Task: structure prediction
Amino acid sequence: MRTIKGPGLMLSQFLSDTPPFDGLDAIAGWAAPLGFKAFQIPIHDRRAIDVERAAHDRAYRDALKGTLARHGLEISELSAHRAGQLLAVNPACDDVVDVFAPPELRGRPRERRAWAEAQLRLAIEAASALGLKRLATFSGALVWPFFYPWPPHPAGLIDAAFDELASRWRPILDHADRHDVDLCFELHPGEDLHDGASFERFLDRVDGHRRSRILFDPSHMLLQHMDYLGFIDRYHARIGAFHVKDAEFVKSARSGVYGGYQEWIDRPGRFRSLGDGQVDFDGIFSRLARHGYDGWAVLEWECCLKHPEDGAREGAAFIADHIIRVTDREFDAPLRACPDRARIDRILGIGRS
Result:
């Protein structure tokens, strides 16, 4: 067993042009007094990191780490979610996801994909150079528009999509292997890898690649009505990162899991700040501790009700209170003195007539 590290903070939902969220030093000065110990840093936001310089410029890396260290912070992981999303895009979603690409690449899906692959490779190199072992990302989605089998999709469509997805990711996984970095796919609706079955389908096609791991976020599993505690028991060896995010599903007579195209606040299933939803975090932290999860517990705030600063303040304390400092001894060890064989025989009555 191992004690989970944390609390960490995913910066994507907090970075903005408004102080103190407009730069790494400023946001570190805000977050550290709340109790955060690390940042998960998105590579797409230059207010937090220049990923190319992080990959190639040692002085820049030292300055980056020094900025965080002054506040008692470190980097938990880099996040390349947007690049992962753009590596595999169904044409139906081209215009929607173009917002994740540089302006000069919008409307040019082939060039956009090449850019996304280059960004993923840079992120791997930057993570390795920074001494990090894990990179968070999305898988992208070639076949997500067909997640519900009506109208029936042509036979072979799903297999062809996963064959192609694996062919795009395999060289990136190999690049990660050369740099001793794991790719942690966040299993997320909207991505081809969104649950255990889809992850297994992908894993089979990349020959169980040792660098293919999971970013565990129970909020997405609760909204899919999955057994997220059982998921930890089944896939713990592949879990490399952890987003601590809450959610709730309140049954409605008007809409269900798919949400009726409503805004988040009106959906039966919606994300909540930590402690305000239905996720069993006592169970999650216990399962992760039991299975020896050695990574960070990182807050991702996406609540449709609570102010983000309140969510962060409460979330840091929530995570700290849930981290289990694992025991270094068994409580009944003193009572289990090592007996000799003669005593065992006496206890069992062996040798008596």
Summary: The beta strands are 5-10, 38-42, 74-80, 134-137, 182-186, 212-216, 239-244, 246-249, 269-272, 296-299. The domain at 5-348 is CATH 3.20.20.150 (TIM Barrel).
